[in-house]
Amino acid sequence: MDTTQITDAPPPTPQPTVAEQKRAARGATRPGDRIFLGLSRGSGILLLVIMAAIAGFLTYRASIAISKDDANFFTTFEWNTQLIPPKFGIAVLVFGTIVSSIIAMAIAVPIAVAIALFLTHYAPRRLSGPIAYVIDLLAAVPSIVYGLWGALILVPHMNGLYGWLDDYLGWTGIFTWQGGAPRSMLTVGILLAIMILPIITNVSREVFRQAPQMIEEAALALGATRWEVIRMAVIPFGRSGVISASMLGLGRALGETMAVATVLSPTFDIQASLLDPGGGTFAQNIASKFGEASETGRDALIASGLVLFVITLLVNGAARMIIARRKEYSGANA
Amino acid sequence: MAKRIDVSGLTAYYGSHKAIEDISMTVEPRSVTAFIGPSGCGKSTFLRTLNRMHEVTSGGRVEGKVLLDDEDLYGQGIDPVSVRREVGMVFQRPNPFPTMSIFDNVAAGLRLNGSYKKSELSEVVEKSLKGANLWNEVKDRLNKPGSGLSGGQQQRLCIARAIAVEPKVLLMDEPCSALDPISTLAIEDLIGELKERFTIVIVTHNMQQAARVSDRTAFFNLAAVGQPGKLIEIDETERIFSNPSVQATEDYISGRFG
Prior knowledge:
The complex is a heterodimer.
Chain A: H1 2-8, H2 18-26, H3 31-68, E1 79-80, E2 87-88, H4 91-122, H5 125-140, H6 143-154, H7 159-169, H8 185-209, H9 213-221, H10 226-255, H11 258-263, H12 282-290, H13 295-325
Helix pairs in contact in A: 3-13, 4-8, 4-10, 5-8, 6-8, 8-10, 9-10, 10-13, 12-13
Chain B: E1 5-14, E2 17-27, E3 32-36, H1 43-49, E4 60-68, E5 71-72, H2 80-86, E6 87-90, H3 102-113, H4 118-131, H5 135-138, H6 151-164, E7 169-173, H7 181-194, E8 199-203, H8 207-213, E9 216-222, E10 229-236, H9 237-242, H10 247-253
Parallel strand pairs in B: 3-8, 3-9, 6-7, 7-8
Antiparallel strand pairs in B: 1-2, 1-4, 4-5, 9-10
Helix pairs in contact in B: 3-4, 3-6, 4-6, 6-7
């Protein structure tokens, strides 16, 4: 009886749930919208899944290798995966990767910024177009071609520079040269600088081109010369963009493989001098050793790859922090 | 020290397009002169020839003479950069340097002109912000970015920046067109105070504003789209708005235009 009474009672008007209200506010969704939403959401999820899969794979294989390692993975200057138990460490690779990238950045960033400023604020339009196009082409050259060029052209022509550096800056200790083939960190750094120059230039050029006209006019009207306009209105506006551009370049320099492997004559130790051959980088080490590596050797190389991955993440995070700290003063809220 | 502006036979081009033709006028020191006229009549272009900002636009060039007291701004060997240090400008949209603090915005012009001691800079910054009626609103946050201020405050910051270098002339290109009525009133009051020290030229689309702030008013017009703009007449503001000598001026100010 009780149940029938309840069913007889007038049914309460169903209150629309929050989700339903939202859907109503959005209006009827058309099939095109639904398909596009599904595609874009699917792509986003796929990206996360791929990232997680890569990270998971690297971590799993790396943990196997590190558990077998008989030496300290971070401080050992040795890479002997054939020994039983194996002994290997990444100290040399960390050093080589960071040093070659620092050299590349120190050379490439100032030149790239100068080129970008020239193209956006000095060059006549009929000149800036073709130059920008040539720089785009430079970015499209495969890295193995840079490597061959570096080994066959750059290396034989470095002797003069090396001699000069040894004569005048040898006393610093980092520019001494014992006369070996110039297949060293400095040559690698110079080659990497040439390789990352186009990407830094292009991104910086885009950023500088977007410097707001009215801010430049404000500087001009105060009696600023062209250089002062650039210093007051263009460079501060583009600073965070140049940092992002540099990080893109740094990412490429850290991970560059073939060009480094072709030019560097690697050894598994650290040279105080940038001019003496030796050292190695993560990517170069993986490329040189992967083909002949045993199962354990491959896992060890993967472990080193994971470290490179983490270094790249840290570099990107640091760049984001620098950009965020300057946000209040950035041109974005002009 | 405010200076007199004496323009004779001035014609300005954008590439091959003649924007304004054969303009002559005199602007007295320590006065406010308003430029009015329909859009495209060349009043802003003319204003920008007075501090050589016109030639910044690609293809911009000028014929004729602009004398600042006795010095020809377009004379041989005159550096446009030094002209702009004598003739300051305030723009239509407030444009403080977004990467600089309020203090640095006002000090920017001084720093261009040479090195100053910190105490001297602070003194000039305070004086300029007071001169722009902004000091009381920002004195506690001089190190905050200028872009955090309201539109009207930003425009007064730009005025402070312009007057900090003690220009002889202050050009204003529709300085209130992006502002609300209260901020507009603040700027208009400020113009009344600034004319004690500077020669002021203001372009405005608002005829009541021209009537309120200016001593003399110049009316510009163009015969048709694509034709160069011309100066129709310049006279005491009171005359222009009560009894102009040219029929086109009367048509324009009474809204019977075109």
